[in-house]
Every structure is written in structure tokens, then in C-alpha cells.
Specification:
Elements: H1 2-20, E1 27-30, E2 33-34, E3 38-42, E4 47-48, E5 54-55, E6 61-67, E7 71-79, E8 97-102, E9 116-126, E10 133-138, E11 141-149, H2 151-156, E12 162-168, E13 182-189, E14 194-205
Antiparallel strand pairs: 1-2, 1-14, 3-4, 3-8, 5-6, 6-7, 7-14, 8-13, 9-12, 9-14, 10-11, 10-13
């Protein structure tokens, strides 16, 4: 029994050391867990996800543990907007947003804009009917955002199968976005129904000239 406890402690320590070795400038979500100092949450961090099911108001957006290879190595996100319009008839899109945000510092990606892609492992359980936007934010400022449409990519993905979707950073570049101060590396938002699972989010290299924004 004592030997079993020792083995378990060694395995836990090894897993911790492996996670700690990940470079947060490259790895943002690994096996369903945010890589520190990145945080995974809903509604721009008002609701944090740390391995247990959470939701925004009226469960319009839910996050819960899922499985890619083992239990908990992925996160399931379900968008089911319910009664989210305000008194003026507009939608509070913040409660329909998941985010991976760095609360301690920013990341400088200027040196790899032409050479890297923001890649995530995803399984699409329910295809979207409304637009889905991938967003990045700089300087912890909502006015400093860039967007990329994902609706077609999710519709093309084989339903219920894990795939990796790379988005070249160059496709996220716009005149007002500052890649030297990236504070939210990955954010998804839609006002329609959507059901997906995400396991890993990271930067991957691109071959020279390999840029496809379609």
C-alpha cells in the first residue's frame, strides 16, 4: 500500500512537471487545462473554469469536463442562448463568450506573425447556424480586438470527430491590432446554438508561404 502511494505521488509529480515545462508563449490550453498564467473562463473571466462545470446566466453558455483520450483532457462548450436580450432588444454577447486570457502579462507574437498559426483541437457535436467568431485581444482592452469567422470551418469539420484547425496569425492581423501585447489569445462567441469540445490551443509553425484564410 505504501509503495502504491509512492508510485501515485511520482506520477502526479511527473504530470505537474510536464505541465510546468510548457511554454506559455506557445501553449495556452493543454489537455483541457489552461497553461499558467493563462486562465480559461466564460464572460471575459467573470466565470472561471478549473475542471468543474460552470455556466453563464440562464446557462446560455456552459463549460464542462469532456474526454478526448482520458476524462477531463478536454472541455465541452454548449451555447444555448435563453432570454438574453436586454430591455432595448439587443443581446449581451459577453455572456456568450469563452476566453483564454492572461491575467499577469501579455505575449509578444510580432516575430511569428508570418510563420505561425493559432491551432486548436476541436470536436464539433452540433454545427452552428449563426456566425461564430474567433477573437484575440490586446492590452486588456476590448477596443483592441481582431476577429476571424469560424462558422464554415466548423460546418466542414467531420461531426463528432477530433480535428485540428490552424488559423494563421496573418489572417488575424488588422491595422489596429497590436500583436506585441496579446492578452486574450483565444475567444469564441456566437449568438446561436453550438456544441463543441476543445482539448488543446497552441501555436504551430507554418511552412513558408503557407497562408490560407479561407
Amino acid at each position: 500500500m505504501k509503495m502504491l502511494k509512492i508510485i501515485c505521488m511520482i506520477l502526479i509529480l511527473a504530470a505537474f512537471q510536464s505541465a510546468a515545462a510548457l511554454d506559455p508563449n506557445i501553449n495556452y490550453l493543454n489537455k483541457g487545462s489552461a497553461v499558467s498564467p493563462w486562465e480559461l473562463g466564460l464572460n471575459y473571466g467573470k466565470t472561471k473554469y478549473i475542471g468543474e462545470s460552470v455556466a453563464t446566466v440562464r446557462s446560455s453558455l456552459q463549460a464542462s469536463p469532456a474526454k478526448k483520450s482520458v476524462d477531463g483532457d478536454a472541455v465541452r462548450f454548449k451555447w444555448k442562448p435563453k432570454g438574453i436580450k436586454n430591455e432595448w432588444g439587443s443581446v449581451d454577447s459577453n455572456i456568450l463568450t469563452m476566453n483564454v486570457t492572461n491575467k499577469m502579462k501579455h505575449t509578444d507574437l510580432t516575430s511569428v506573425i508570418d510563420r505561425a498559426a493559432l491551432t486548436f483541437d476541436v470536436k464539433v457535436n452540433k454545427v452552428p447556424k449563426e456566425n461564430v467568431e474567433l477573437m484575440m485581444e490586446c492590452g486588456w482592452d476590448w477596443k483592441c480586438r481582431t476577429k476571424f469567422p469560424l462558422k464554415n470551418a466548423f460546418k466542414r469539420a467531420p461531426k463528432g470527430k477530433w480535428v485540428s484547425i490552424p488559423i494563421p496569425l496573418k489572417c488575424l492581423a488588422n491595422e489596429g491590432f497590436d500583436f506585441s501585447k496579446v492578452t486574450t489569445i483565444f475567444s469564441l462567441q456566437t449568438v446561436g446554438k453550438l456544441d463543441i469540445e476543445i482539448s488543446n490551443i497552441q501555436l504551430t509553425g507554418l511552412a513558408s508561404g503557407e497562408v490560407n484564410c479561407g
